[in-house]
Write a structure and sequence with these properties.
Elements: H1 2-14, H2 52-69, H3 80-83, E1 99-105, E2 126-130, E3 138-140, H4 149-161, E4 181-190, E5 197-205, H5 210-220, E6 226-233, E7 245-251, E8 255-259, E9 262-266, H6 276-290, E10 299-303, H7 309-315, E11 320-325, H8 328-340, E12 346-350, E13 369-372, H9 381-390, E14 394-399, H10 402-414, E15 425-433, E16 443-450
Parallel strand pairs: 5-6, 10-11, 10-13, 11-12, 13-14
Antiparallel strand pairs: 1-2, 1-4, 2-3, 4-5, 6-7, 8-9, 14-16, 15-16
Helix pairs in contact: 2-10
Keywords: Methyltransferase, S-adenosyl-L-methionine, Transferase
Family: Belongs to the class I-like SAM-binding methyltransferase superfamily. RNA M5U methyltransferase family.
Organism: Gossypium raimondii (Peruvian cotton)
Length: about 450
């Protein structure tokens, strides 16, 4: 039974399976009423109708199954229960996202019972989230329970005005590649002096026509929390919200947020942990796993460092932090954040960690601690081979995908027999963290020590 459940879970995890509920025969004991009106249709909060306790149990079980079956760690080992830590819940289960991206579209998604309605022109326009399984249909959203209340005020203001024929605004058509408005990105930060929320609004458009956006800018800027209105211009036919050019339409070009006692400036395209509240918890776990002595004697290598948030929070106890990141803008943000916080013992370098060669490692001393926080595909085999050769005393692996995390710690601990690669690490702990309630996503913090 266990193997069957695991196989089905893995199929669900890696394959985009679309399922439609036909009828509820009897309610499950963990079923709850989803507070969001869009929960039945939107793909953002797939488990909102499941009690939070049940969500946590399911996530913890997923990690456990992957560690056993993919990571090849036996639950019969007496140490396994000490290694596998219980999931850390999120105290804030709604309004926790500091960034939401909504899309404009020419085709409004409708539930099956309303498909008979014929919508044309402006009536078919939508601003919201992509309906699951559709790249060209948008579920119109007036309010999202995951973002802050000020962000919902902005969304409502845009919804009330953008389709006004007198403004002449058109949503981007992904089929004909015509139209003006592509995305609306809302970011919530915090004023460091008043501790009040500050909001950035980013319009992503297909061309630069500030006069077209002026009426919306005037209405949005009247909302007290709005301190920045940006315009990213993306002329490509792709669906990205990052523009080739960026303009400030109102206020300043960045907002600020605090994390682990440090201040971070966040630009329209900066990466920043999406759940600030739970990021405090996550980074404390990372710091505890790193176990820096605090005497400024240790070298930290921060792989996939992004805008430097993890490395900068560790720098106060380290001799030096070396960070690597492929995105040039993120590296620039890391330098800026270091300067903003008066931190001088960090070096951030641009580099693709999937394409390292024999020269990688010559630009920094041997680290005492490696922090690795890859994206969902995990670490490339080239990097794993490098780490096995480097033999740093400690690796803290931070993962947003427990499947690739289990695979990588298997390689680091057990090696790869087919490639004659020997592992040299021991898994000391794996800590699941719920960063995103009501979604299937799970964060893990793993501690590996050199055998």
């Amino acid at each position: 039974m266990e193997s069957w459940c695991f196989i089905n879970y893995m199929m669900f995890y890696f394959v985009n399976i679309q399922v439609t509920k036909l009828k509820t025969l009897s309610p499950h004991r963990d079923l709850v009423d989803a507070p969001c009106a869009y929960a039945s249709y939107c793909g953002g909060c797939k488990t909102q109708n499941l009690s939070y306790e049940a969500q946590l149990r399911a996530k913890e079980q997923q990690v456990r199954e992957l560690v056993i079956h993919v990571g090849k760690f036996s639950d019969k080992n007496p140490d396994f229960e000490c290694i596998m830590k219980p999931i850390v819940p999120c105290d804030v289960q709604f309004h926790y996202r500091n960034k939401m991206e909504f899309s404009f579209g020419t085709q409004k998604w409708l539930p099956k019972e309303l498909l008979h309605e014929k919508l044309d022109g402006i009536d078919n326009y939508a601003l919201g989230l992509h309906a699951p399984g559709y790249f060209d249909k948008i579920l119109n959203v007036d309010k999202c329970l995951l973002q802050s209340e000020p962000a919902n005020k902005i969304l409502a203001t845009v919804q009330d005005n953008w389709k006004d024929p007198e403004l002449g605004l058109s949503p981007y058509n992904v089929h004909s590649h015509t139209g003006f408005l592509k995305h609306l990105v809302l970011r919530t930060g915090r004023d460091m002096k008043t501790d009040l929320p500050e909001l950035m609004v980013n319009f992503v458009t297909s061309s630069y026509k500030p006069e077209m956006l002026k009426p919306l800018v005037e209405k949005i800027s009247a909302i007290p929390e709005v301190v920045s209105i940006m315009n990213n211009v993306n002329t490509s036919v792709g669906n990205t919200s990052v523009g080739e050019e960026e303009y400030t339409l109102y206020g300043k070009s960045t907002i600020t947020e605090s994390l682990r006692g440090l201040t971070f400036q966040i630009s329209a395209n900066s990466f920043f942990q999406t759940n600030t509240h739970q990021a405090e918890v996550l980074y404390k776990l990372i710091e505890d796993c790193a176990g820096l002595r605090g005497d400024a004697s240790e070298i930290v290598l921060d792989l996939f460092c992004g805008t430097g948030t993890i490395g900068l929070t560790l720098a106060k106890k380290a001799k030096h932090v070396y960070g690597y990141e492929v995105v040039a803008q993120a590296v620039a943000d890391a330098h800026r954040n270091a300067k903003l916080n008066g931190i001088s013992n960090t070096t951030f370098l641009q580099g693709d960690l999937n394409k390292i060669d024999e020269n990688f490692g010559k630009h920094f001393p041997k680290p005492d601690i490696v922090i690795s926080d890859p994206n969902r595909p995990g670490m490339h085999m080239k990097l794993i081979k490098f780490l096995l050769k480097l033999k740093a005393p400690k690796i803290v692996y931070v993962s947003c995908n427990p499947a690739t995390c289990a695979r990588d710690i298997d390689y680091l601990c057990h090696g790869v027999m087919e490639q004659n690669i020997k592992g040299c690490y021991k898994l000391k702990s794996i800590q699941p963290v719920d960063m995103f309630p009501h979604t299937p996503h799970i964060e893990c913090v793993c501690l590996l020590e050199l055998c």
